[in-house]
Amino acid sequence: KLLYHLEKEEQMPDGMCIDAEGKLWVACIDAGRVIRIDPETGKRIQTVRLPASRITSCCFGGKDYSEMYVTSAYDGLDEATLAKEPQAGEIFKITGLGVKGIPQNFYAA
Description:
Thrombin, subunit H; 7 strands; mainly beta; EC 3.1.1.17; 3-stranded antiparallel sheet; Regucalcin; 1 helix
């Protein structure tokens, strides 16, 4: 079942996570953003833009899971793009989203 059709400017999905409200967060590689999707309606309900284009994954953390951590890559970027995106390849912390994540599940081996 198709959940959401990415808009052209959202490029391609990469890493994902779920928040405490059951919404899906998707890192959009080559689009410089993380989007929040309501899986029940199939609508994008939030967009967080970042200062790097190659956004690779996202997860919630912090003591109460109110912080989002977002990874990025610098591979594949030419010198001109790297000069415009000096933070490419870094990990970003996002606060103030108004939503929290959930603890991860651990499984015994």
